[in-house]
Amino acid sequence: MSVRLRELKYKIKALDLQEKNAGLAEEDLYYQAATSVTVLSSANLNLLAATALSLISYSMDLIHKFLNIVAPPTTFFSLCLFLPPYWTFKFFLSIINSIFSENVAGKVVHITGASSGIGEQLAYEYAKRGARLALSARRETALREVADRSREYGSPDVIIMRADVSKVEDCSRLVDETINHFGRLDHLVNNAAIGLATLFEEADDITNLRPIMETNFWGSVYTTRFALPHLKKSKGKIVAMSSADSWMPAPRRNVYSASKAALVSFYETLRVEVGSEVGVTIVTPGYIESELTKGKFITKEGKMQVDQDLRDVEVSAMPVGSVSGCAEAIVNSTLRGDGYLTVPWWFRMTYVIKVLCPELVEWTFRMMYMSGSKTTAARETPSKKILDATGVKDLFYPSSIQSPDLKTE
């Protein structure tokens, strides 16, 4: 509103007021007129703003209602058209990548959690291909044994370092020591992890479960952050060891499953951020012979122990895969540049079932893995009874996980 127009309105209002207040001075009438017009204009503006916001909100509601109706069928028919050529393209691309897979002879690979299980076998697989190795874990004695065998398998240079990846300073040190010794880093394998087998309500002090997230998630994040600049220089690769538990709602693995799901989300986002500079392979193993399937869990008191009866409850009558075959598949997939790998492959179907029938999956897990009463021991669950009744334990469980003995420190 221009100044002259505003003054004119004030004068008109003053004349109106003059008739009602003949005794007031002219300047007082003019002041009353100005105040009245200002208040009126402010009220009008507030009303206009509220009306505009209401219209915008109503419009957005209409847009979302429209998308709720249109998006599902559009997505379905688009996928019907898109998936066949997409899968065909991926099939031929996988063949090409298999033929021209990366040669890691002489390259540097750092593996965390390399003292046992999948980490140990990954060291042997990389060693067979002539890679130089940096191995880290908390158990130095076991690491030395793995390093000696890796040299026998063909690795030209192996160093070890005792480290706890839940500590950020250890993660920084293990990357620095690798660079100081080799001068480069080509592959980072984030394998270190600890398991859990306790109901959430049974954890009286929830902070006792903090090491699971600190090791499984933050240990990988810390190491990746320190290694990333070196991996960019070498156009290297990251292997993120998640788990099929990242999508399966298995009882007693609550925080463990959350840590593995967080890894998937983190590395998918990182892959978008770094683009083609660094390859990221996300691995989601099913049941593979390791210390986890041997029954090594962190308890509700925060202590590590081996409980094979509880392991039987968790694994039940499911076949446990070979760790050597798993490691070979992981290395092959990484060298091909795959984005995802599930070992064994058929376990990926559990993800499909989870997406299509989530309620059915949750009901099945509750029926099979919960005893139905808080006073009943976990060892009385149907999953344990089925394993004992069928007698398939010796058939489905490798001999390496039949014994509760663990590697020494």
Automatic annotation (TrEMBL):
The keyword Transmembrane applies. Keywords: Membrane, NADP, Oxidoreductase, Signal-anchor, Transmembrane, Transmembrane helix. One of its GO terms (cellular component) is membrane. GO terms for molecular function: 17-beta-hydroxysteroid dehydrogenase (NADP+) activity. Its main location: membrane. SUPFAM superfamilies: NAD(P)-binding Rossmann-fold domains (SSF51735). It comes from the Eukaryota. This is Uncharacterized protein. It comes from Clitoria ternatea. The lineage of its organism: Eukaryota, Viridiplantae, Streptophyta, Embryophyta, Tracheophyta.
